[in-house]
């Protein structure tokens, strides 16, 4: 069963409390995630409004869901945690982009497809 679909609008992230999922890009499997992992963090942070990957359950999964609005409400009361979270996300994005080729980036630009 698909949990999120590539290209779909999204404002939620998911944490896998139990189970295993398959991660796909353009119909090809690119990895697996299991108990303790999370996905959709860019959507919940508002970095993107659409999902860049498809994630489907490989086993029965127990998922925890956090919406952008719930996170924003929580972090309003904890500004120091907001700052730390944004710094962590920025560091992760720098690391992720360091591994991405120019061709992969250009492949994501709808105008060039």
- Secondary-structure content class: alpha+beta
Strand order of the largest sheet: 1-6-3-4
List low-pLDDT spans. none
Shape: globular
The description of the largest β-sheet is: 4 strands, antiparallel
What's the SSE pattern? EEEEEHEEHHH
Describe the SSE topology:
Elements: E1 2-4, E2 12-18, E3 20-25, E4 28-34, E5 38-39, H1 41-44, E6 54-57, E7 62-67, H2 68-76, H3 79-98, H4 102-107
Structure description:
This protein is of the alpha+beta class. It is built from four helices and seven strands. The chain has a four-stranded antiparallel β-sheet, with no helix packed on it. It has a three-stranded antiparallel β-sheet with strand order 5-2-7. The protein starts with a strand and ends in a 6-residue tail after the last helix.
Structure, briefly:
The chain is α+β, with helices and mostly antiparallel strands and 113 residues long.
List keywords for this structure.
alpha+beta, 3-stranded antiparallel sheet, globular, about 30% strand, 4-stranded antiparallel sheet, 7 strands
């Amino acid at each position: 069963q698909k949990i999120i679909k590539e290209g779909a609008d999204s404002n939620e992230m998911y944490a896998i409390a139990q189970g295993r999922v398959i991660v796909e890009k353009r119909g090809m499997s690119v990895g697996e995630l299991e108990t303790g992992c999370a996905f959709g963090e860019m959507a919940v942070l508002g970095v993107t409004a659409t999902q860049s990957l498809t994630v489907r359950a490989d086993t029965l999964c127990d998922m925890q869901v956090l919406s952008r609005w719930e996170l924003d409400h929580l972090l309003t009361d904890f500004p120091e945690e907001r700052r730390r979270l944004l710094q962590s996300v920025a560091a992760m994005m720098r690391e992720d982009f360091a591994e991405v080729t120019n061709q992969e980036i250009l492949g994501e630009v709808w105008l060039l497809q």
